[in-house]
Write a structure and sequence with these properties.
Elements (H helix, E strand, L loop, with lengths): L2 H27 L15 E7 L2 H7 L12 E8 L5 E4 L11 E4 L4 H37 L1
Antiparallel strand pairs: 1-2, 3-4
């Protein structure tokens, strides 16, 4: 692996973790949303990471000249959590069914916070990897100067 490849891998991981954090934040923001445009309560969403297709990154690089490094990360899909909604008896609620029950999203704030902490920690680790790589590049340049 070339030294600049480490930057590319970390950059792809930073991007994926940022997107993951945005999905988690949307889950938390919609924890009480009982009615969406699609109808029914909000559904918790989860991300699925995968190894990025080398072909995709080869096209994104300058004319596809360089072969992309192994280990690139991407979010392959965002899926709805299949957990059924939580039914609460609230007969006065505008979204209550004929029996007085309201369907709330099956979102546990503690689970979302743990997921967010994991995402933030992974982001920090990748940012540290970028910093270490930059330091190695700078030291290499300094050695070549002398």
């Amino acid at each position: 692996m070339k030294i600049f490849d480490a930057l590319a891998v970390s950059a792809s991981a930073l991007s994926a973790e940022r997107q993951r954090a945005e999905i988690i934040a949307a889950n938390m923001a919609n924890a009480e949303t009982t009615h969406t445009q699609a109808g029914g309560p909000f559904h918790r969403r989860e991300v699925v990471f995968s190894s990025a297709s080398p072909f995709k990154f080869a096209l994104a690089s300058a004319g596809g000249i360089d072969t992309p490094p192994a280990g690139m990360v991407q979010i392959s899909q965002v899926v709805d959590d299949p957990t059924p909604p939580v039914m609460k008896y609230e007969p006065g609620h505008p979204d209550a069914d004929k029996d007085g029950y309201v369907a709330y999203p099956a979102i546990n704030p503690a689970t979302e916070m743990v997921d967010l902490m994991g995402s933030v920690r992974a982001y920090q680790l990748n940012a540290s990897a970028v910093s270490a790589t930059k330091q190695m590049i700078q030291q290499s340049i300094d050695i070549l100067k002398s």
